[in-house]
Amino acid sequence: MSSIANQDVPEKTPDDSSKLKTFLSILRKFVGVADIASVRFSLPAHLLEPTPNLEYWNYLDRPEAFASIGQSDDPLGRTLEVLRFWFTKDLKYIKGKPCKPYNSTLGEFFRCSWEVDHTLPELPTTSQASIIDASDARNTIGERLKICYLTEQTSHHPPVSAFFIDCPDRGVSARGFDQISAKFTGTSIRVAPGQHNLGIFVNLEHRDHEEYHLTHPAAHLGGLLRGALAISVSDTCYITCAKTRIKVILQYLEEGWIGRAQNKVEGVVFRYDPDKDVITRMKDVPEGDVLVRISGSWHGQVFYTLAGTSDPRVLIDVTPLFPVAKNLPPEENQLSNESRKFWASVTEAILDKRFGQATKLKQDIEERQRQKAAERQKKNETWQPRFFTGAVTPLGRPELTKEGVQALEGVRNGDYKLKESETKGA
To answer: What is the pLDDT of residues 361-420, one digit of tens each?
Structure first.
């Protein structure tokens, strides 16, 4: 009797300190490994956040900031709108603890949408303009906007996913490949873009298809030894637009050994020649080319100061902002390889604190994927993505297939019906 009754007793929930100890013991095996992200090692379920990677890894924590890009008639104003989006896209790392979601499987996909009934106000770009608080999300137009998102795991070795973001009413879209490279140093994990991750490419249809190329900085996941995980950034990243001939250099500053983390960021917006672009450091930008200087904390307020003035203005204040909830397809319309449904049994077991069962279910999924890969190799078959034209492209700009376009339109129209994939191995 007692053995039967005990089967219904939830397993003891591991506390954060025991989780970190287990995590560290696993990571120590990878000291010296060039890229542990490419190894795709399997973690026990109690160390995972019950969230699919494709759902977790998006850049729309504040979708209204994305929908606001392209409002300004001034090229500099549009650059500042892109910057404002940049500082809101990863709020999850500022407002919550870093976590490890499920590893994506080949052919897994995720789709969702956000609806916003306001956009952020335009930013003044002349010295005579009045100061506008960019964190004041007023309804400047009174329209309800829909932002649609589609992503698919397009490669397993190396692990790469393609994504496409679309706000049709504003003519704003974005695309790119997500891939990370990670190295354990013994005290922290350095996470950087993988070779196929060339950044985010934002396109403004209503501005003669201006394209803004945003590159990712490297980050460090620290606090492993003291049991308080935190992300820090001390790297340089860039935003360029060849059409407007405007470039941004952002420098995330190294934290000091003493005192609280300031999470400081500095930057410069300047005119550049796309055909002779050799400037990579802020100090090398000619003073006469400077349009704006950026300063502040990427955990709080970021300011911009127009050239020739000493009047800092708020670009964005992320202090009151939190990630916005997604709208997902109804459960009955989700396919078997759609992230939420694909991982449903594992998620349910973790939430029920049945960690042993969750680990087994997760391992079963991973073993099935290995078997499918072996079958394809035996038959000399090449797996092809369903919604994107290729696993990766040299330019880092994934193209949608016909089915990908239809899937995005379905998200926009609320018609989520798709057929199960006939692609072998998906």
So the answer is: 999 999 999 899 899 989 998 899 999 999 999 999 999 999 999 999 999 999 998 988
> What distance in Å separates the CA atoms of residue 372 and residue 390, rounded to the nearest whole number?
19
Q: Counting beta carbons within 10 angstroms of the beta carbon of residue 109, is it exposed (0 to 12), middle (13 to 18) or buried (19 or more)?
A: buried
- 52-75 pLDDT per residue, tens: 999 998 999 999 999 999 999 999
Amino acid sitting at position 223 = G
SS (H, E, C) 294-306: EEEECCCEEEEEE
Q: Tokens for 221?
A: 């996941």
- To the question of pTM greater than 0.85 for the whole model, the response is yes
What Å distances lie between residue 121 and 52, 169, 187, 208, 308, CA to CA?
Answer: 34, 17, 42, 22, 23
* CB-CB neighbours of 334 under 10 Å: 19
CA dihedral sign of residues 72, 73, 76, 82: positive
CA trace torsion 53, 59, 61, 62 (10° rounding): -160
Distance separating alpha carbons of residues 398 and 182, to the nearest angstrom: 23
Domain residue extents for the chain: 1-230+328-416
Asked if residues 93 and 274 have their Cβ atoms less than 8 Å apart, the reply is no
- Side chain identity at residue 189, one-letter code: I
Terminal C-alpha separation, the chain: 44
For residue 218 the two structure tokens come to 């490297």
